[in-house]
Write a structure and sequence with these properties.
Length: about 180
């Protein structure tokens, strides 16, 4: 391994490479809100964030407290559990992704879930979540998601009732069906 290879971080499929020091600097600048009803999970995610270099982390134990903290501290990224009392993760995302109703509808959201069923991931995408992670989460995965959000930001868009980050892969337009011609 060369020094140049050692000093680069490869994100996702390797399409973006950055200097490891630059990635570390970006991560250190972030403020992250962790919203989870389980104190052990909040502590574990907070520790992982600290281990990857995040200096400012905030915590909330349920969706209502999460909404209050988003308004109060305006974090750069929200790491949100799917299942919580009061407001669960999807309900919180629906509220946050309401422009004109919520003050920061464009805040990046990483959904965490102990359940990785396809329907949950698809529902998260439909709600406007930026990233999805399954528990137990690793430090590497937790490092890659914020870096991806920072290096490949997606503009928020409204598509029908959807409001959230622009889809990574634009939907394919259905082929036009030619109407039969009268002879």
């Amino acid at each position: 391994m060369t020094i140049a290879e050692h000093n680069c971080v490869v994100i996702g499929a390797g399409l973006v490479t950055i200097n490891a020091r630059h990635a570390e600097f970006l991560i250190q600048q972030l403020s992250v809100l962790v919203v989870d009803d389980n104190p052990f999970m909040r502590n574990m995610v907070r520790s992982l964030l600290g281990n990857i270099g995040v200096k400012k982390t905030y915590e909330a134990g349920d969706g209502i407290a999460g909404l209050e903290m988003i308004r109060e501290v305006s974090p750069d990224i929200v790491v949100l559990d799917w299942e919580m009392p009061l407001f669960n993760g999807p309900e919180l995302v629906r509220i946050v992704r309401s422009p004109g109703v919520f003050p920061t509808p464009d805040i990046p959201i990483i959904m965490l879930s102990a359940h990785g069923e396809r329907w949950r991931i698809l529902e998260s995408v439909k709600l406007g979540v930026n990233e999805f992670l399954c528990k137990p989460v690793s430090g590497n995965a937790l490092f890659d998601r914020p870096i991806s959000i920072l290096l490949k930001p997606r503009q928020s868009v409204r598509l029908g009732e959807y409001y959230g980050p622009a889809p990574r892969f634009p939907m394919l337009k259905p082929k036009a069906i030619a109407a039969p011609t009268a002879a």
